[in-house]
Amino acid sequence: xxxxxxxxxxxxxxxxxxxxxxxxxxxxxxxxxxxxxxxxxxxxxxxxxxxxxxxxxxxxxxxxxxxxxxxxxxxxxxxxxxxxxxxxxxxxxxxxxxxxxxxxxxxxxxxxxxxxxxxxxxxxxxxxxxxxxxxxxxxxxxxxxxxxxxxxxxxxxxxxxxxxxxxxxxxxxxxxxxxxxxxxxxxxxxxxxxxxxxxxxxxxxxxxxxxxxxxxxxxxxxxxxxxxxxxxxxxxxxxxxxxxxxxxxxxxxxxxxxxxxxxxxxxxxxxxxxxxxxxxxxxxxxxxxxxxxxxxxxx
Length: 299
Ligand SMILES: [Zn+2]
Hints:
Elements: E1 2-8, E2 12-17, E3 28-31, H1 37-49, E4 54-61, E5 65-66, E6 71-72, H2 86-93, E7 98-103, H3 104-115, E8 124-129, E9 133-139, E10 142-143, H4 175-178, H5 180-189, H6 197-205, H7 209-233, E11 237-241, H8 249-262, E12 272-275, H9 282-298
Parallel strand pairs: 1-4, 4-7, 8-11, 11-12
Antiparallel strand pairs: 1-2, 2-3, 5-6, 8-9, 9-10
Helix pairs in contact: 3-9, 5-7, 6-7, 7-8
Bound molecules: zinc ion (ZN).
The site of zinc ion (ZN) has 6 residues, from loops.
Keywords: Kinase, Transferase
Protein name: N-acetylmannosamine kinase
Enzyme class: transferase
């Protein structure tokens, strides 16, 4: 018997077995193909399952999703943009398995609560800033799912002082300033010549002027968004991970400055914003938590 965790990210699939002794080497990853997306996902799941009977599968997916229908419509996967019934498809593949789906941000929140920095608090937010921005909000020890499963969409929180057009159709969303795609667009528009988000974070670390300025905008915007959410939810801890969070002081200094400037209420004096220690494994680990709890509930 085996339990699987599946992550459907903007850039790729990851599948790993859920077990006490599972480690990084057990996780298999593939990029999202332009066509035959489900075929590739199915083959990866079958590969990791290795003919064992699968009793539970937890799925962390980029949004938006329809959690109750088990349908996902990730904006970065063209074939699935209008909706793909992932729960039904995985259920057909593993007929006896319990299949659970949540958005990647919610899974991140579950992972930080179970294995990470929010373990010791009741009210917190866990954020990934990478190609996209996702977050999991924990209130009173529970990770908030929302009406349709899409709660925690920090990427589309409005950031004062910014008016960049967002892919969602709005303007001034956090993701339109601090999301990886937006950062690359902004930096290239000013003459930066790199070709990836990893290159942008690396050049920011070594002081490239445009990269530092791009991360400065991102840090300020992220800090303002956090300073907006913190009083709304009365949280005292925010954990930030993802590739953009690996840019060093270019991001973290303006982020801390923005939080210090805007989060001024007395009950927010203890607000801490810290880097994640989950090394990018948050959504997949959270999918594992989903699968484990579903499996135990069935027993
Ligand atoms: Zn938006």
